[in-house]
Amino acid sequence: MNQHVPASITEFHRRDLIRVGGLGMLGLTLPKLLQAEEAARQAGRVARAKSVIFLFQFGGPSHVDTFDRKPKAPDGYRSKFDWISTSVPGMEICEHLPETAKVMHKIAQIRTVHHMMNNHNSAGYTALTGVQPPTDDQRLRDSPDLFPPYGSVVDKVAPNSNGLPTFVSYPYKIGDGSTTPGQNASFLGKSHDPLFVPQDPNAPDFKLSQLSLPSDVSVKRLGDRRKLQLLINRQARDLDKSAVAQGLNAYYTKALGMLNSPRVRDAFDLSAEPDKVRDAYGRTTYGQGCLLARRLVQAGVKFVTCYFAKSIGGRSTTSGGWDTHGFDNSRMYEILPKWHYPQTDHTLPVLLNDLEDRGLLDETLVLWMGEFGRTPKINKNISRDHWPKCYTVLLAGGGVQGGVVHGRSDRTGAFPDLDPVTTGDLAATMYNLMGIDHTLEIRDAFDRPLPIANGQPVTSIARA
Fold first, then answer.
1. Where are the alpha helices (DSSP H) in 171-235?
2. What's the rounded Cα separation, in Å, for the pair 190 and 168?
3. Residue 231 confidence (pLDDT)
4. I need a surface site. Which of 18, 92, 261, 378 has the fewest CB within 10 A?
5. Beta partners for residue 93, in sequence order
6. Buried (b) or exposed (e) across 15-50, using 16+ Cβ within 10 A?
């Protein structure tokens, strides 16, 4: 790589390179050949979605208490919530999602997504990558043997060439006991890691300080090696602990691109949004995260992952993910209406309407899903346990036909009854909508060719 970098840059002191390398964790992309887009043109494939917003619902929402009503299920299986009509005639959803009900004509449901991973970390990895690990192990850890997330694959096969990062994730590294695999680029290399932003977008001082150039330093002056050294040393001092000694060439090349980019800084500037818009999304971490996702795709970022929560969940009615099954006294049916449903109902419809109002929904695919669903049978704690064998995923925009349902679960919502869909099929569907050939191969740590998706696109939800 060095022959492509000016000598004045390659002669940096190693300490400076490590510091800039730390910015590589932010995942800046390099201009390179857009292989997948060229392949798509040659194959006549159309990219319906220029960008993807992946809203990951860590903890596992109950499909039978949100979107997949089972009125004919026996007592002890049926949801304890009432159901309301939606903007799609004959379709009903949970009573606690009234605003979402108004936009169901924009949303496609896949009600038969399934896999075999019952633990949060292994199921989370499966949902984040489309690939099941060898074993269902809660102790599953990051490893070069494991598959990279969707955004890293997109960064590898169809990277941005507009000066913006291809893949951004925030505001947490999720995990249950240990960090869930599938959040970093794995065998693709750290240069394909996301631009990870471990900051609360709802915080009053939310900003990317690493991206803020001093007012007296122009982009032109960055060409001077000594001034650049001083700038990096001053701004990246806090990154020493997180920098690693591998992949530094890719790290510092990307870091320089970020420091030179006012577009990147502007995309993250939530203070530019009117209070009315910020209030509409909700002054919460997740609400402002959804707004930030809109700003990022509007600026030209290709893949944005916004995590609903850092943890799987618990007893709280003010924080946490969707995992509320271990408590007595009907805690699940108390917690969901106070926290999870309001967070969903004040973000998903607002995001879809905002994207549509700005002319962005047709070119932005919004994917809403967790790592699994919930058992159809209510347990002794009047709650539901982990259930990966059948659950519902929502897609909207980006070439998706709204108001449709693909697949049918059985009478209780336990298993697919018609048109089952794997997470590999879901990955293939997403890539296909982005105009990326889902049969493309990437090379693992042992140089073995692997397809980017182990499945086939679900074409029934695509707009004609």
1. 225-235
2. 14
3. 54
4. 92
5. 84
6. ebbbbbbbbbbbbbbbeeeeebbebbeeeebebbbb
What is the residue whose two structure tokens read 């947490």?
172
Q: What pLDDT digit, counting tens, does each position of 34-80 carry?
A: 454 455 554 556 889 999 999 999 999 999 999 999 999 999 999 99
For 156, the token pair is 């590898």
Residues in CB range of 215: below 8 A, 6 or more apart: none
Q: What is the DSSP string of 382-412?
A: SS--EE-SSEEEEEESTTBPTT-EE-EE-TT
Alpha carbons 424 and 455: distance in angstroms, whole number: 4
pLDDT per position as a tens digit, 175-225: 999 999 999 999 999 999 999 999 999 999 897 755 444 555 554 554 554
9 and 80 in a single domain? The answer is no
How many structural domains are present in the chain?
A: 2
**372 or 229, which is more confident:** 372
Tens of pLDDT along 97-131?
A: 999 999 999 999 999 999 999 999 999 999 999 99
Residue 96 domain boundaries: 36-207+268-461
SS3 325: coil
Shared domain check, 116 and 96: yes
Q: In whole angstroms, what is the distance from residue 54 CA to residue 439 CA?
A: 21
Rounded CA gap, 125 and 140, in Å? 9
Burial (CB count within 10 angstroms: exposed 0-12, middle 13-18, buried 19+), residue 72: exposed
Which residue stretches of 109-236 are H helix? 120-129, 150-157, 225-235
* Tokens (6 digits) for 40: 């798509």
